[in-house]
Amino acid sequence: MIFELMSNGTMVRLPDEMTVSGLPELPLPKVLLLLPYNRYIAGTSQMKTTERWTFGKLGANEEREIFLYDGKPLSILLGEKEKVLLSGVLTGELRSHLLSQIPAPGEHMPAALILRGLVRENHALSDEEFINNEGAMLESLEKLPYLRIPYWAIRLALYRNDYEAVSRIKTWLKAAYDVFDGGTPPPRIWFSLTDLPGRQAIDEMEGLSFSLDDLQRMNSQTSRPVVLYSKAGYLILSDYGGEGPETAFRIWMFLPIPLWNEMRERRKLSIREIVTASWGYLDGLEAEKERNRFRGQGSLSRQG
Known about the structure:
Blueprint: E1 2-5, E2 11-14, E3 30-34, E4 39-46, E5 49-57, E6 62-66, E7 74-77, E8 83-86, H1 88-99, H2 108-118, H3 128-132, H4 134-141, H5 145-159, H6 163-175, E9 188-192, H7 199-206, H8 212-220, E10 226-230, E11 233-240, E12 249-256, H9 257-266, H10 271-291, H11 297-303
Helix pairs in contact: 2-5, 5-6, 5-10, 6-10
């Protein structure tokens, strides 16, 4: 896929068979964005690296690696003074174009076996022939969101070596597997390295009837986790990490009243279990969005 950046900050697609003089040979799949002053941004996928982005100059045989993040603008110097700004929307579009050409990462069997161990009452997962046939299982999962979402959450977490996420997903499936199925709005989560989260997060919490004074009062408590009630639900402040090389940060989590009542009052989960299980569920929702961007997955999802 070849695109050109326009002066108004948008990009237009050019013919895929177009020849770009001075461009180094790039492996497929690839995405190419042509910039002013003969510069370019190229995205490729190689081996176990899902995506790799480079910035270079046509005909100069020079390039350097850059990183694109959804929703985050990217500013690049084109010369000594000239620079170009890619909007957060544009960086997300470029990533989506590349990921749509790539199979979803991760290994099937480890994810399927972990899922089977956590959801033992599901008869489909007890069928060895079914679980060993990746294509058949993935096709069936499209009609089974209660299995599809945790499967992809586990698979993508394992791919990233994010074993903390795997642990959270396990807590969700063991302690609160069916809690989030009743149509209640999902939990919300924010993170902060400092005493309080950023302005946007504070605005969102204020929209849920928690004032800045409330947040400061919660943060002043030396014993964590801290829980505060409002007419909209419960806000939890909990610490995470801080041991060994890990950097401690704060988790701010909002739970609608029905979710709190189910987990705390009926199931008697601890506050930390509630936070971990809810975070694991949110990991699942994020994994569902992520896997839809890869080749073939979006169309399958829509059919389901």
